[in-house]
Amino acid sequence: GNSVTQMEGPVTLSEEAFLTINCTYTATGYPSLFWYVQYPGEGLQLLLKATKADDKGSNKGFEATYRKETTSFHLEKGSVQVSDSAVYFCALKNSGNTPLVFGKGTRLSVIA
Amino acid sequence: GAVVSQHPSRVICKSGTSVKIECRSLDFQATTMFWYRQFPKQSLMLMATSNEGSKATYEQGVEKDKFLINHASLTLSTLTVTSAHPEDSSFYICSAPPGAGGGDTQYFGPGTRLTVL
Asked: Which of A6, A18, B14, B59 has the maximum number of C-beta atoms within 10 A of its C-beta?
């Protein structure tokens, strides 16, 4: 079946540090891949997505590249800010009216 | 972008009572909606798929008689937690893909925090 594995958190970084959150997946077919972010006390928001191999999703300085050969979709940001503190979820979805399959989430804390 | 609302945002109830949570797509029609449950500091677990005009599909281990789902229209799905107990306390989130054909993007409601005393 489909599954998503994320690096365990929490991750604590200083402001302006480089961020990488690893995500690998197992899936049948050719899923779309997503990163969602959940800020404290709020619901999930789509951060970025990629729908096919070698696509790069990007938003708010975050990037992730769909790597089919390594079944990975690692999230990166060159310089994190305190406001990036949140929980980040990697997810995949097959085509059609199918649900998202989420990783366990990685809590990021950025300190000034 | 598309908006999904949930009501109520928070609810506290006594053990043994039933609680209804509404999920609405505000500016698009959704033939399918998904209900997730999130335990503290954990990921979202899919509970069921709500289908307009037909019975919901429940994930393994989810009691369909306890978590009643009704998708009465193309913009509304409801989740009723019947005879709630403290272990049902959780964060419940719905999502919907816009359009009858689905699509890659799903829009999430803000969630409902249920506390059962």
From this structure: A6
> For residue A86, what are the contacts with CB-CB under 8 A and spacing of at least 6?
A37, A38, A39, A40, A107, A108
Query: What contacts B28, CB < 8 A, 6 or more positions away?
Result: B2, B96, B98, B99
Number of CB pairs < 8 Å for A and B?
A: 51
Beta strand B112-116 pairing with B10-13: parallel
The reply to whether omega before A99 is within 30° of 0 (cis) is no
The closest alpha carbon to A36, from A1, A65, A62, belongs to A62
Could you report the per-residue pLDDT of A50-100, keeping only the tens digit for each?
999 999 999 999 999 999 999 999 999 999 999 999 999 999 998 877 889
Q: Is the Cβ–Cβ distance between B47 and B59 less than 8 Å? A: yes
- Say whether A82 sits in a helix, a strand or coil: helix
Nearest to B21 by CA among B93, B86, B85, B97: B93
Question: Rounded to whole angstroms, what are the CA distances from B50 to A19, A76, A104, B65, B93?
Answer: 37, 34, 23, 14, 13
Candidates B49, B104, B108; nearest CB to A44: B108
CB proximity A99 to B under 8 Å: yes
Q: Check B102 against A98: CB less than 8 A apart.
A: yes
The pLDDT score that the predictor gives to residue B47 is 96
Nearest to A97 among B93, B102, B105 (CB): B102
Which of A46, A97, A103 lies closest to B43 in CB terms?
A103
Half-sphere exposure for B91 (CA within 13 Å, toward CB): 17
